[in-house]
Amino acid sequence: MKLHTFVIGLCLCSAVLSCSSEENTIEQENSLKAYELMSLEWKLDTNNGQTIIEEKLPEFYFRNDSDTIMQVVINPLENLLGNSKFVFNDSLRFAQLNSPEIQVFIPDELSLLSETYGTLYGGTEVPFNQEPSAFPFSFNSKSTYALNRRSILTSNYTIFLKQNTATILATFRETTTGERLELDGTWTGVFFNNIKVETIANAIYVLD
User: Organism's domain of life (predicted)?
Assistant: First the structure.
């Protein structure tokens, strides 16, 4: 009875080791394969679209107590950035790809896309990976004011950002065998849309 148990145990152990060895071999083969991106296609599904995000900035406040004109420069977008993120349905497979990181174009306007897959040419470029990436806005909102002597200036800005989502299909080719691999997923990007500002200048009154 003990001999039978020992033999069964050896068989089970051998089977486990065999499976583990096969999995390691497959992982090693995949790690040795080198892939290059052939195409990145985009389309709009029913769950894709655009959302407007409203963000109120802290008030800009300037006070000129001198007897000369003071120049004031305000750049409300100075510390704001757009962002982009790719998420693949098989995120682990994408992460395991032996492929060089490249830059790809992303759509700042969803009117560029349709319900069928298409390729983008031109626009904002970002790294093609699953990590969030940031980029500067193309819009310049810097304003310069001449603040009169003994006066106060306040500016209140509301920034409107557009968040775009789309469906993606990436096609890769193995550089040695020509084997093709397709991975689909979703993309989200945030861009500048417009800006609203209210600026008020008031004189400083000194009571004797």
Answer: Bacteria
Q: What pLDDT, on a 0 to 100 scale, did the predictor assign at position 140? A: 83
Fold of the 36-203 domain = Proaerolysin; Chain A, domain 3 (2.170.15)
Alpha helices (runs of H) in the chain, residue ranges in sequence order: 2-32, 91-95
Q: Which of 61, 64, 67 is nearest to 147 (CA)?
A: 64
- Residue carrying the six token digits 């790294």: 127
Q: What are the contacts of 79-83 at 24+ separation with CB within 8 A?
A: 80/55, 80/137, 80/159, 80/192, 81/134, 81/135, 81/136, 81/137, 82/124, 82/134, 82/135, 82/136, 82/137, 82/161, 82/189, 82/190, 82/191, 82/192, 83/132, 83/133, 83/134, 83/135, 83/189, 83/190
Reading the block at residue 172, the tokens are 């890769």
- 127 φ/ψ sector (left φ>0, alpha ψ -120 to 50, else beta): beta
The 10s digit of each residue's pLDDT in 15-65 is 444 445 444 444 445 556 889 999 999 999 999 999 999 999 999 999 999
The tokens describing 123, both together, are: 């626009």
Domain boundaries, the chain: 1-32, 36-203
Q: Could you tell me if 61 and 149 are in contact, meaning their C-beta atoms sit under 8 angstroms apart? A: no
